[in-house]
Design brief:
The protein is α/β, with parallel strands linked by helices. It has a domain at 4-118 and 209-225: Thiolase/Chalcone synthase (Peroxisomal Thiolase, Chain A, domain 1). It has 15 helices and eleven strands. It has helices spanning 20-33, 54-57, 62-70, 86-99, 119-126, 132-136, 141-156, 160-174, 188-192, 222-225, 254-267, 284-293, 302-307, 324-327, 332-348; strands at residues 4-10, 46-50, 76-80, 105-113, 196-198, 201-202, 211-219, 230-239, 276-279, 361-368, 373-380. Strand 10 and strand 11 (373-380) form a beta hairpin. The chain is globular, with a radius of gyration of 19 Å.
């Protein structure tokens, strides 16, 4: 079955005053209203919600809360959690259920309300995405990424400038995204001189705490609802060890490669055919490491794509035109879905000032737990 995206919903990202129920209602109503040929909520028979931690929202049964705003009590609804890859995983599950005939149309939505908690409390929540041993000894996400980045720099010769370029690029891209959390540009020196969090990771290499929600409406009969669907051509899921310390090569994102290989095979394309991508830059070094797992660059050469301008917005392979997690924001449950929305808009030519020239193939790489779980989605017209 050919599954397509027929509509979307997306709040602004940032420190928001709206509560989590209001954010959910907003993206649900936007998704329904945005269907070109119209859709009745009774035709949406599945709702899959991505949300990472009840401690952020102080609310259980969020999928049932969302069902209230869908106004179709006969739909089935449940929640998916896979750390930072929750949004991609929710989309994967929904597509599989449509493929199997268990659903016709599925609303996939993600939400997180992170800024309610003090930073130290939020950090204690987020550390739970790591391996039990890492949690026990207080190895935070920045620390785990920082250790991988140290090894990468020693092994392949990447510099502090290379680590900073991604942050500079993505903040510049976010200037053209009205939904982004940050609308401020930074110089290389500003990034390189920002506060050290876990060497070589600095403050301006890190994605922020963010509130927000995003949704995509999937259909097994997309042409019934729109003359301009974007098709989910291939999706793949991959896994690696939970702990970075357990990995054969901590500088390589094995789970993302496994997921990408599956997605490319299903879509029947090669990496060189991808014309635009959103990748999971929770911490800046993860972006160029992902390039290698996705087949955009050879091992140890991912950082060169940014150095040479290839992944800039005006380059031959624009990456993170939305601003990425770094500048658009990272409301964990919504992140993977928001990334899909960006590529969806780009493929339709509806990305406004940040639009790139007529892409036909796009890719989204969404990973969690410092790369323990990854979901890769290939989208096409």
């Amino acid at each position: 079955m050919t599954v397509g995206i027929i509509s979307y919903g997306h709040t602004k990202y940032g420190k928001l005053t709206e509560d989590i129920s209001t954010l959910l209602e907003s993206v649900i109503q936007e998704s329904i209203a945005g269907v070109e040929k119209g859709i009745n909520p009774t035709d949406i028979d599945l709702l899959v919600l991505s949300n990472v931690d009840n401690q952020f929202s102080n609310q259980h049964q969020l999928a049932t809360v969302a069902l209230r705003y869908l106004r179709n009590p006969n739909a089935e609804a449940f929640r998916v959690e896979a750390a930072c890859s929750s949004g991609g995983m929710a989309t994967y599950v929904a597509k599989k259920m449509i493929d199997s005939g268990s659903a016709r149309n599925a609303l996939v939505l993600g939400v997180e309300k992170m800024t309610n908690l003090p930073t130290d409390v939020a950090t204690s929540v987020l550390i739970r995405g790591g391996a039990p041993e890492e949690i026990k000894y207080g190895v935070t996400q920045p620390a785990a990424y920082g250790l991988s980045a140290q090894l990468y720099m020693q092994k392949y010769g990447a510099t502090d400038d290379d680590l900073a370029i991604g942050a500079v690029k993505n903040h510049k891209n976010a200037m053209k995204n009205p939904l982004a959390q940050f609308h401020k540009e930074f110089t290389l020196d500003a990034v390189k001189n920002s506060l050290v969090i876990a060497s070589p990771i600095r403050l301006l290499h890190c994605s922020p705490m963010t509130d927000g929600a995003a949704a995509v409406l999937l259909s097994g009969e997309p042409r019934k609802y729109t003359d301009a669907p974007v098709y989910v051509k291939g999706m793949g899921v991959g896994y690696d060890t939970m702990g970075v310390f357990e990995r054969e090569d901590p500088t390589f994102m094995k789970a993302s490669k496994i997921a990408a290989d599956k997605a490319y095979k299903l879509a029947e394309i090669e990496p060189k055919q991808v014309q635009i991508a959103e990748v999971h830059d929770a911490f800046s070094p993860a972006e160029f490491m992902a390039y290698e797992s996705l087949g955009f660059a050879k091992r140890g050469e991912g950082y060169k794509l940014m150095r040479e301008g290839i992944t800039m917005r005006d380059g031959s392979l624009p990456v993170n035109t939305s601003g990425g997690l770094k500048a658009k924001g990272h409301p964990i449950g919504a992140t993977g879905i928001g990334m899909i929305v960006e590529v969806y808009l780009q493929l339709l030519g509806r990305a406004g000032e940040r639009q790139v020239s007529s892409p036909e193939w796009g890719l989204v790489e969404n990973h969690g737990g410092t790369g323990a779980t990854a979901v890769v989605t290939v989208l096409g017209r």
